[in-house]
Amino acid sequence: MMAVVLLAAGILFLILGWQIWKKEKITLLHDYHYAKVKPEDRKAYTGAMGKGLSAMGIGMIAGGVMQLTQYEAIGWYLLGTAFAVGLAVMIYAQMKHNRGIF
Keywords of this protein's UniProt record, alphabetized (predicted)? Predict the structure, then answer.
């Protein structure tokens, strides 16, 4: 059951990350997250936020796949690592382009 949840959430995160990154759909984020982003920084901001969200999604998918094997611990390690990297990228983008987390 956990594998199905991780796979579904991972696919959702990956799709949303792709939309934010490649299609620059900044409106998928809360408006206060991009309130101070300059128009010229929008592409870089959406790129970083989308990549971070996609990294989290890939980690969830990898964790879900590993849940189906006998290597569950490796799956949790992959999930945790990818989630931490994705979160770090998103926080960096927030601090750089929005001049603060909120």
Answer: Membrane, Transmembrane, Transmembrane helix
